[in-house]
Q: What sequence folds into this?
């Protein structure tokens, strides 16, 4: 087993921590809302979300921002629990893309 | 909380197991195999290593606040600096 991509405390070369404050985007706030709603309904637990992020492809994990990882782990857990399918999520994304996406 | 059920008490020296297995491990890599001491006994909680896979988290595990000298973790560190980590009992062995 190798050290997980999430478990990087103390590794050299990470650079300084960015401690600057930044505004949250609307979609990031929405990601938090969806996460909390799923928790309140007993559909997922924090530990499951963490595990889903640990199981992600390492390159994808490193490329994603914090809330992108949240979304990816929410998707993974909802698919795992057979609440949504990959196809349903992709179909909805395509609808949003055609409605609001860049031409 | 039934403190008497805890294997360790504040001040006890403990060594973190160096375990590396598949699953959701709540003990960070940088303290595995390291020796520290118990600062506080929090009580018993559902086991996140089980909850992470949609299971019931039982039996509950005793959770400790464990302190380490930073010199023992990173080598280069101020002698007075400590690091505090929450660690479940099944990760800890008694240390001299």
A:
């Amino acid at each position: 087993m190798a050290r997980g991509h999430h478990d990087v405390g103390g590794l050299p070369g990470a650079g300084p921590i960015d401690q600057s404050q930044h505004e949250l985007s609307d979609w990031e706030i929405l990601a938090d809302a969806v996460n909390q709603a799923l928790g309140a309904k007993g559909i997922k637990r924090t530990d499951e979300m963490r595990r889903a992020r640990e199981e992600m492809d390492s390159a994808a994990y490193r490329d994603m921002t914090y809330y992108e990882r949240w979304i990816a782990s929410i998707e993974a857990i909802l698919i795992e629990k057979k609440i949504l399918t990959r196809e349903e999520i992709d179909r909805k994304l395509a609808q949003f893309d055609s409605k609001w996406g860049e031409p | 909380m039934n403190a008497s059920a805890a294997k360790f008490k504040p001040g006890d020296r403990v060594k973190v197991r160096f375990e590396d297995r598949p699953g959701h491990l709540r003990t960070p890599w940088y303290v595995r195999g390291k020796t520290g001491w118990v600062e506080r006994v929090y009580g018993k909680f559902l086991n996140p290593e089980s909850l992470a896979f949609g299971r019931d988290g039982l039996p509950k595990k005793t959770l400790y606040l464990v302190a380490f000298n930073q010199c023992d973790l990173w080598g280069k560190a101020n002698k007075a600096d400590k690091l505090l980590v929450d660690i479940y009992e099944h990760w800890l062995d008694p240390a001299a």
Notes: The radius of gyration of chain B is 14 Å. Chain B has a mean pLDDT of 94. Chain B touches chain A at residues 20-25, 28-30, 48-49, 51-54, 73-74 (CB under 8 Å). The beta strands of chain B are 13-16, 35-45, 61-69, 82-88, 92-94.
